[in-house]
Design goal:
alpha+beta, Alpha-Beta Plaits, 4-stranded antiparallel sheet, 35% strand, globular
C-alpha cells in the first residue's frame, strides 16, 4: 500500500450527463487513486471540500481497455471510480456549482 495523503487520493471529477443527474441526490463521482480505500476517500472529500459530510462511498475498479496500433497490442491504464453520497445537512461541493 502506498502512503497516500488526502490530496493524492482524488484525481479529478467525472462530469457526464448521468453524474450531473445524480448531483440532485447529492451523489458526486470522482476518479481516485487505484490504491485508495473507502475510508481514505471519505476523509479526502471531507478535508478538501469545507462543510461536506460523507454518508457513504461506493467504489469500482475499471480495467484498462485493449488498444491496438498496427500489429502491436497494449492496454490503457487502470482506473478507480468513486461515487460519494453526502448527507442531507451537508454543503454542496463548489466545483460542481454552475454546471
Amino acid at each position: 500500500m502506498a502512503d497516500l495523503k488526502y490530496y493524492d487520493v482524488i484525481l479529478k471529477p467525472i462530469i457526464t450527463e448521468k453524474t450531473m443527474g445524480e448531483m440532485a441526490d447529492k451523489k458526486y463521482t470522482f476518479y481516485v487513486h487505484t490504491d485508495a480505500t473507502k475510508t481514505q476517500i471519505k476523509e479526502a472529500v471531507e478535508k478538501m471540500f469545507a462543510g461536506t459530510k460523507v454518508e457513504k462511498v461506493n467504489t469500482m475498479n475499471l480495467n484498462g481497455k485493449v488498444k491496438r496500433r498496427g500489429m502491436v497490442y497494449g492496454r490503457t491504464s487502470k482506473k478507480k471510480k468513486a461515487i460519494v453520497k453526502l448527507t442531507e445537512a451537508s454543503a454542496d461541493i463548489e466545483i460542481f456549482e454552475g454546471l
